Design the sequence.
């Protein structure tokens, strides 16, 4: 077996390769960041099986497709957070990063693999990511318009950026022509972004999967939340237990432990934040579903936790419970059943 660590960047790839006997085959070699450079490097080594170790990054998709397509390569993708000691070590360089990844592979000390999503779920994840980017840019421009109006001491009509007759409303505002020109151009961009967002959203809803119906059977989980959950979790079997999936969803507390003292801190942000955002929104909905039979166990759990702790903690607790419930539904391939929920207020 040959162990290869590759440090990825847009300008060049840095490679370190060693064999079972610790013999260095490539030491900090630089190759072009494309398929041709990878093929040339891999073909220059013997026909032995190769374990290629790379960090997850913005070039992961094409790298994974190419490397997984080679019969002589086993790919191991690691999350940057899992090997922070590389980033924090003194004398950090691309060559050192590549060497350490190769040595971790040879020593059998690599952290867990990053799950590589493929097929329609990869398409769904990319569409959802594009929609979020468009939405963020649109909101930034809306905030920009509001900031301009605050500087002028003028209050915009309610829902100005969503009005059909916004141009007529703009002309009636008591602001200088310069500000009107700026707002007009910002509004043109906002409308274009909204149209793009709508088009992407339509493509999101076109993607169908039987597991979406399973997720939608959970109270407060609608069509969009179900698709976000599915795109993030994908294969439920890859998680060892519900604690792992809760950590993946950025819904577990930080733990500070020293001797006999253990302190639970704020919720850890290491995880899929879009998953946490949508589940917190769903948790707020659960808090208003007092008359829904299916939601009753979750609603009661929310109220008891709120009474014992506070509303914020109760919301996070319900969001975590929704995530672990979704995990259970996907893992067992069955619809939500409220009588099977086990809820305990901490």
Sequence:
């Amino acid at each position: 077996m040959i162990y290869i660590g590759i440090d990825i960047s847009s300008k060049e790839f840095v490679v370190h390769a060693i064999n079972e006997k610790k013999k260095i085959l490539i030491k900090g070699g630089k190759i072009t960041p494309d398929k041709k450079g990878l093929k040339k490097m891999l073909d220059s080594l013997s026909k032995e099986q190769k374990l290629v170790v790379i960090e997850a990054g913005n070039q992961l998709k094409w790298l994974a497709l190419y490397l997984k397509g080679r019969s002589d390569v086993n790919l191991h993708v690691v999350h940057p957070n899992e090997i922070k000691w590389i980033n924090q070590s003194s004398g950090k360089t691309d060559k050192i990063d590549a060497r350490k990844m190769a040595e971790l592979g040879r020593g059998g000390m690599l952290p867990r693999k990053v799950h590589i999503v493929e097929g329609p779920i990869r398409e769904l994840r990319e569409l959802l990511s594009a929609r979020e980017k468009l939405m963020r840019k649109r909101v930034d421009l809306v905030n920009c318009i509001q900031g301009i109006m605050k500087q002028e001491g003028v209050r915009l009509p309610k829902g100005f950026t969503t009005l059909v007759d916004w141009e007529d409303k703009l002309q009636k505002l008591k602001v200088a022509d310069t500000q009107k020109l700026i707002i007009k151009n910002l509004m043109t961009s906002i409308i274009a972004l909204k149209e793009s967002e709508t088009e992407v959203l339509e493509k999101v809803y076109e993607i169908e999967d039987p597991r979406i119906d399973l997720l939608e059977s959970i109270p407060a989980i609608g069509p969009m939340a179900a698709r976000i959950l599915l795109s993030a979790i994908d294969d439920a079997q890859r998680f060892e237990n519900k604690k792992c999936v809760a950590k993946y969803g950025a819904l577990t507390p930080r733990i500070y432990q020293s001797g006999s003292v253990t302190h639970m801190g704020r919720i850890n942000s290491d995880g899929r934040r879009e998953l946490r955002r949508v589940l917190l929104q769903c948790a707020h909905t659960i808090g208003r579903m007092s008359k829904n039979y299916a939601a009753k166990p979750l609603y009661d759990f929310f109220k008891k936790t709120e009474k014992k702790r506070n509303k914020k903690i109760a919301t996070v607790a319900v969001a975590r419970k929704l995530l672990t419930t979704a995990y259970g539904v996907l893992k067992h391939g069955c619809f939500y059943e409220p009588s099977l929920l086990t809820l305990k207020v901490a």
